[in-house]
Design brief:
This protein is an alpha+beta fold and about 450 residues long. The protein is built from eleven helices and 27 strands. About 25% of the residues lie in helices and about 35% in strands.
C-alpha cells in the first residue's frame, strides 16, 4: 500500500515515446482499458510489424495544436463507449509516466475530440501501482500554459492541407462558421462561397465554376454543400458543376435533390423497407375522403412537398378540417403529402446525425407549448437521448437509401416501433453540438479527409 502512487480523478501524465510529454487525463476505474484521442488514424506494415500513425490534439479545448504520433499495434479490440456505441479500435503499447514512475500500458485509439479529456486512464493501467482519491485532482502537480507551449511549440498550419469550399448562402450561420473553424483547425484552407454568386462555364473539355468578379474557382479538393430550400435547384446545379471539375462533394447533387423531394425520398425508403408513418399522395381534391381513410383517419398531418424546417406543415384534427386544408392547398396547385399522426409521440422526435454510415450523435427534440412539431426553429427544446440499436440501424439505412454521406434523420417513436419522418441533407449543427458536446463539424471534415484518401 505504501509503495503505491496516490492520484486524483484527473492528472497530468506523459507518453514520451509518442512525443507527448504532458497530457491531461481522466482517471476512470470503471473503464478496463485506457484510451487516447486520435484522428487521421492510418495503419501500415513495416518490417513485418503492424504500426499505426495518428494525429492528436494534445491540449484540452485546443484543436489548433496538432502532434503526429506513431505506435506499434499489439491488438484490435471491440470497445463499447459510454454512449453505448461499439467500435473496433487499434491497441498500442507505450510507456506512461506518472509521479516520476514509468511503466508500459496498453491504449486504444479513438476519436475523443468531442470529449474534454484527451486521455482516459483505465484500471488495467493502474493495477497494483496506484490508489485513487476521488475527491482530489492533480495530486501529482499541474502543468502551466507556458510549459505546454514549450512542449508543443507554436501552432503552424499544415502545408499539405486541403482546399475546401463551404457552398452556402449565409456566412454568419452557426453551422457554416463551425465548418470553416473545424477545417482550419485541422490545417485546411477553408473558404465560404455564396451559391447565388457562382456561375458556370459548361463545356466538354474544361468545365469551370466562376465566382463574383470573374474569379475562377479551380483547384478545389472538396465542397461541403449547405443549400437552403429556396436555392435547391440552382445550388444542386453548382454542386454538380464542381463535381464535374473533379472536386469531392460531401453530399452529392443527386442525393441532395432526392432528400429535398419528400415524396421521392419516402418512396426510396419504402423500397428499402424502412418503417415510416403511412403516407398518402394525390393530385385531385376529389380523392380527399379516401386519402384521409388511407392514413387511418384524423387527426392527420398535411405537408407541403417542398417545405422544410416546419414550414408548410399542418395538423388537421377533424375530417372537415382535413378536407378544408387539402382543398385549399390543391386550389393553389401545391403538391402535398397526407401523413398518419403518431399521437403517442407526444410532440417529441429524435434527430440522428449520420456521417459516413454511422450515427455520430442524437438528440431528442420536444415541441414548444401549443405546437405538435418537435422543431427547434419553432421554439422547441432539445435534450440528450440514448437511441436503441433498431433506431440506429434505421437511421443508417435511411441515409444510405437516399445516398447521403451526411444526413439528419428524424425518427419518431410509435407503438409499433421507430419510424422515419424525413431526412435532411443540410442538418443544423448548433443544437446537436451544444447538447451532445460533440465536434460534429470536425467529424464532417474528417469524413472528407478519409474519402479523399480512399480516392488515392
Amino acid at each position: 500500500m505504501e509503495d503505491k502512487i496516490v492520484i486524483g480523478q484527473e492528472e497530468w501524465c506523459g507518453l514520451e515515446e509518442l512525443g507527448l510529454p504532458a497530457i491531461k487525463a481522466r482517471v476512470d476505474s470503471g473503464a478496463k482499458t485506457s484510451s487516447l484521442h486520435a484522428f487521421n488514424i492510418h495503419q501500415f506494415e513495416e518490417a513485418g510489424k503492424r504500426y499505426v500513425h495518428f494525429d492528436i490534439h494534445p491540449i484540452q479545448n485546443d484543436r489548433k495544436t496538432i502532434q503526429s504520433c506513431r505506435g506499434l499495434v499489439v491488438d484490435k479490440r471491440n470497445v463499447k463507449s459510454s454512449s453505448g456505441d461499439k467500435e473496433r479500435r487499434p491497441v498500442i503499447k507505450t510507456p506512461i509516466t506518472l509521479g516520476g514512475e514509468t511503466w508500459d500500458i496498453e491504449v486504444t485509439l479513438t476519436n475523443r475530440d468531442t470529449m474534454g479529456y484527451r486521455m482516459l486512464i483505465g484500471r488495467e493501467a493502474m493495477a497494483n501501482r496506484v490508489l485513487i482519491d476521488p475527491d482530489r485532482s492533480f495530486c501529482l502537480g499541474t502543468v502551466s500554459t507556458d510549459e505546454l507551449k514549450q512542449y508543443y511549440g507554436t501552432v503552424r498550419p499544415k502545408k499539405d492541407g486541403l482546399r475546401i469550399v463551404v457552398l452556402a448562402s449565409n456566412p454568419e450561420l452557426y453551422s457554416n462558421k463551425r465548418l470553416i473553424e473545424a477545417g482550419e483547425e485541422r490545417g485546411h484552407e477553408m473558404r465560404f462561397v455564396n451559391i447565388s454568386q457562382c456561375y458556370m462555364n459548361i463545356s466538354s473539355n474544361n468545365p469551370e465554376v466562376h465566382y463574383r468578379g470573374g474569379q475562377l474557382l479551380d483547384d478545389v479538393d472538396a465542397i461541403i454543400p449547405r443549400i437552403k430550400p429556396a436555392m435547391t435547384f440552382y445550388g444542386c446545379s453548382v454542386a454538380r458543376q464542381f463535381e464535374s471539375t473533379g472536386a469531392y462533394c460531401l453530399n452529392d447533387s443527386v442525393s441532395i435533390a432526392r432528400s429535398r423531394d419528400k415524396l421521392r425520398s419516402l418512396q426510396m425508403l419504402s423500397t428499402k423497407r424502412v418503417p415510416m408513418p403511412t403516407t398518402g399522395f394525390a393530385n385531385s381534391p376529389m380523392d380527399t375522403t379516401d386519402i384521409i381513410k388511407m392514413v387511418g383517419g384524423t387527426p392527420l398531418v398535411i405537408k407541403l412537398l417542398e417545405g422544410t424546417q416546419g414550414k408548410g406543415v399542418v395538423l388537421a384534427e377533424t375530417v372537415k378540417a382535413a378536407e378544408s386544408v387539402i382543398s385549399a392547398f390543391k386550389s393553389l396547385q401545391a403538391n402535398i403529402l397526407v401523413q398518419e399522426f403518431i399521437k403517442e409521440a407526444d410532440g417529441k422526435d429524435i434527430r440522428c446525425l449520420v456521417i459516413d454510415g454511422k450515427v455520430v450523435g442524437s438528440i431528442q427534440r420536444e415541441a414548444a407549448a401549443g405546437e405538435f412539431r418537435a422543431n427547434l426553429h419553432l421554439g422547441g427544446s432539445a435534450s440528450p437521448v440514448k437511441i436503441t440499436s433498431a433506431e440506429r440501424k434505421i437511421a443508417v439505412v435511411a441515409a444510405k437509401a437516399v445516398g447521403l454521406q451526411v444526413a439528419g434523420v428524424d425518427i419518431i417513436r410509435s407503438k409499433s416501433g421507430p419510424k422515419v419522418l424525413e431526412i435532411n441533407s443540410s442538418p443544423g449543427l448548433e443544437g446537436i453540438e451544444s447538447v451532445t458536446e460533440k465536434d460534429i463539424a470536425g467529424l464532417m471534415i474528417e469524413c472528407i479527409e478519409r474519402k479523399l484518401r480512399e480516392r488515392t
